[in-house]
Design a protein that fits this description.
It contains 27 helices and 24 strands. The chain is α+β, with helices and mostly antiparallel strands. The relative contact order is 0.09.
């Protein structure tokens, strides 16, 4: 019977009509596949291994179904949850929101966890947001700012104030009788290098100094490194205290040598007794400080390791003193009666009260000094100042000296009282950390008591002051070598807990923050070597680190993308082989060498370069390296690890002719050499690939044979055991590319090599490319025979070029 009802299409003038009957046979044929699947599933219920979300059709599956049941259809969710609960899998918790993860207590726990691998400075949080951080020497150290600041940092050192956090330098405290300390410490240094720790200029505690330390009675060999020291100013000479600040690379080694020298025994670690301050978002509580202690009761000598217990800041530049005078307010003696902190107990002693009054009068006279260079070299000043968080302008302000200064009195002398500081007392340092108020607490007090914004509150007089120690840095004292006074400034030593507060106060008063990169820049601008000193522990460690990094990068490239140093006649492109160089110039197998630091010998060499002294009368040791400062005469930067070579007479004539026509090209181009191992490397590579291919075919053949014996099963074979084979091949290729012990260093190219450049950079002071390096004493004597007239010049050649260029040579004096 036909229906008169219209379908949807017919109502819109369509021609399609609904069927009135269904063909049962056709319908059953279309459903037969689904029925078979259903019957097979019902028959194998006991062997079913799929989960509910795995049994769904492919178009309904989602990747997130395993941990999010809401991705499944509603009717299957209960079965899915039952299956997962039966398997005993833990319930997936939702990841905490960012708001929760940024809470103060959660952040602090995360920070403490991350500090376990590398020590954080107190200014780490401030630096991590603005600087590239570097993992080095067991610390997280700021390397350089994320913004362009290289030239700005130079301008700060030359005209303004540069601020650096070098708190990774560790402090060693030695206590004992003065005569005993002087006699023992003399064994680690020499008077030929300069004033020692036992010099009278430093014993009164008014001045600090630098000294090169060696292993016991091993001068001039076995140099440990350069340290800064300061004696505690004290009239009683029987019992003295000495602080030594050492680099973290050789800090532990120096402690070991001192313990052995005084025959000390280690005692139990003494954690500082302090309460955990309230945790807030803007401050991190000081970590539990541990000071290892070594004692010898018979001699009365005690050594304390004060590493990571003091903040050590360095201010460099002519405005360093002005910045400090603006940022630091001397704590008035009258406020001691209004509070109950450590200062009220300390000031009760008449000697301490007299010291505080004298320091206040001294600072009032010198705080308007326009330059740090007006102070004596290495002057030590002790101050007790107000909390630096109370002395900040509303916005960042550059501290400037007064436009007109009328001297009303003569410059005051530094006395023993001005050099004293409560910072030397360990109990006071512990109380300072314990009684410190957090920034959050200060802000809460301001909200309650501050009626007029920006005005001083009444509670600020009761906040504890902090003791500081200021040590003057001399800077350049030779105007002919470098700009007079460049590098002058202050070293600021503060107790633990106040690092970030003091750092932010100095910055808001105009100091320019800098990192480790600017530290090296400053050393190069001053004409010194910061880290790459060949005979020191630090220099050897840094050289090995740079060598391994560059070598790994070199061999990570394909063989046809590597610089072929055999063709360039470069024996060691990534490190300076000082031992082999010295032994070749002396024609001996003795590999021991040292850097010449004898002031008398260096001054004689300096006079010889000015044609005022005969180099033959200096009597240089044959195994010493002479530190030199080089200035490239023409364009080009040879880079680090460049060769210092002796010129020929024809090179001087070529240079003279080029100078007349204003030609800045190279004086000499090294002829391209042939690589004697190129064919051997090609054959080894070819044989190695052929062997690997043969082993691979053997594994494939073995797999096919096993598959024939076990048809229908999955056959697995062991992984290729080619690791040793590949390692041996890599070692052979490395030796053919860059041998560990070259045939020769002195005669590796057409000009005799007698030294290496350790650091090279464009000097913003001189406007030229400058470098610091070391040359052998025998090679320097030969240079004197070659350069009979005019200035002394050497040839410099980079490791990636064949061009030689002339450079003038000077001797670096301490």
């Amino acid at each position: 019977m036909e229906s008169n009802l219209l379908c949807y299409d017919e109502s819109h003038d369509g021609r399609v009509q609904l069927q009135n009957e269904v063909d049962s046979s056709q319908f059953n044929e279309e459903r037969i596949t689904e029925m078979k699947t259903m019957l097979r599933t019902m028959a194998n219920t006991e062997k079913q291994t799929k989960l509910m979300h795995q049994s769904l059709p492919l178009h309904m599956r989602r990747r997130a179904m395993t941990y999010n049941p809401k991705r499944l259809p509603r009717k299957f969710r209960a079965i899915h949850l039952a299956q997962f609960n039966k398997s005993g899998l833990p319930e997936k918790k939702k990841r905490p929101s960012r708001k929760y993860r940024r809470k103060a207590n959660v952040l602090l726990k995360e920070y403490e966890r991350r500090k376990k691998t590398n020590v954080w400075l107190e200014t780490h949080i401030w630096h991590a947001k603005r600087f590239h951080m570097l993992t080095k020497w067991g610390y997280k150290i700021p390397y350089t700012a994320t913004a362009k600041s290289y030239r700005a940092c130079y301008r700060a050192t030359a005209k303004h104030c540069l601020l650096q956090d070098i708190s990774y330098y560790g402090c060693i405290e030695i206590q004992g009788e003065e005569s005993l300390l002087r006699s023992k410490l003399k064994e680690f240094c020499s008077e030929k290098v300069g004033l020692t720790i036992a010099a009278k200029a430093f014993l009164n505690g008014r001045r600090s100094g630098y000294i090169w330390l060696y292993e016991k009675n091993q001068y001039p060999f076995q140099c440990i490194g350069r340290v800064r020291f300061v004696w505690k100013a004290n009239d009683a000479r029987e019992k003295r205290t000495l602080w030594i600040f050492a680099h973290p690379i050789f800090y532990s080694k120096l402690v070991k040598h001192l313990v052995d020298a005084f025959d000390l025994k280690n005692t139990v670690f003494t954690p500082m007794d302090m309460n955990e301050p309230e945790t807030t978002a803007d401050t991190i509580p000081p970590r539990m400080v541990r000071t290892p202690k070594y004692v010898n009761n018979s001699l009365g000598v005690v050594i304390l390791e004060l590493k990571d217990t003091l903040n050590y800041f360095r201010l460099t530049g002519p405005l360093s003193h002005v910045t400090l005078s603006k940022a630091l307010n001397i704590y008035p003696v009258s406020n001691a009666s209004q509070s109950s902190h450590w200062y009220s107990d300390w000031i009760q002693c008449p000697i301490n009260k007299r010291t505080a009054i004298e320091q206040l009068a001294f600072w009032d006279k010198v705080k308007h000094v326009t330059s740090t260079g007006e102070f004596g070299p290495g002057v030590v000043i002790g101050l007790v100042v107000e909390d630096p968080r109370l002395n900040r302008p509303n916005k960042r302000t550059k501290a400037l000296p007064p436009t007109l200064v009328v001297p009303q009195h003569s410059f005051p002398d530094c006395t023993t009282q001005t050099a004293l500081s409560p910072l030397w007392d360990s109990t006071i340092r512990d109380r300072i950390v314990k009684e410190m108020q957090t920034t959050h607490e200060l802000n809460q007090l301001r909200e309650k008591q501050c009626l007029v914004p920006g005005e001083k509150c009444a509670f600020e007089n009761s906040i504890q002051p902090i003791p500081l120690l200021l040590i003057q840095n001399t800077g350049s004292q030779d105007g002919e070598f470098k700009r007079l006074g460049y590098g002058t400034g202050w070293d600021l030593i503060a107790p633990a807990g106040y690092g970030l507060a003091l750092w932010q106060t100095l910055i808001i008063w105009g100091a320019k923050p800098a990192g480790l990169k600017e530290f090296d820049m400053q050393a190069l601008e001053a004409g010194t070597d910061a880290n790459m000193i060949p005979d020191t522990v630090l220099g050897q460690n840094e050289a090995d680190f740079e060598y391994n990094k560059k070598l790994e990068k070199y061999f990570s490239r394909p063989h046809n993308r590597r610089v072929n140093y055999k063709k360039l006649a470069i024996a060691s492109p990534f490190r300076s082989l000082w031992s082999q160089l010295v032994s070749e110039w002396n024609a001996s197998k003795n590999s021991k060498f040292y850097v010449l630091r004898d002031q008398e010998s260096l001054n004689k060499i300096h006079l010889s370069l000015d044609r005022k002294y005969n180099i033959k009368s200096v009597d240089l040791p044959p195994v010493c390296l002479v530190p030199v400062y080089l200035t490239i005469k023409t364009r080009g930067n040879p880079g680090d690890n460049a060769l210092i070579c002796l010129p020929h007479r024809q090179d001087f004539r070529q240079n003279k002719s080029q100078t007349q026509i204003n030609d800045n090209g190279p004086v000499l181009v090294e002829p391209l050499r042939k690589d004697p191992f190129q064919k051997e490397r090609h054959q080894l590579r070819k044989m190695h690939l052929r062997q690997l291919k043969r082993l691979r075919k053997r594994r494939i053949r073995e797999k096919k044979n096993r598959q024939r014996k076990q048809p229908g099963t999955l056959v697995r074979i062991a992984k290729p055991q080619n690791r040793n084979l590949i390692q041996e091949q890599l070692a052979k290729m490395k030796e053919l590319w860059l041998p560990a012990v070259p045939e020769t260093i002195r005669n590796q190219c057409s000009r005799e090599c007698f030294g290496y450049v350790t650091r090279t950079s464009f000097s913003l002071i001189e406007g030229k490319v400058t470098a610091v390096g070391y040359v052998t004493s025998r090679g320097l004597e030969k240079l004197f025979r070659i350069c009979t007239k005019g200035s002394f010049k050497v040839l410099i050649r980079g490791t990636k070029t064949r061009c030689y260029r002339f450079a003038t040579l000077k001797v670096r004096l301490e």
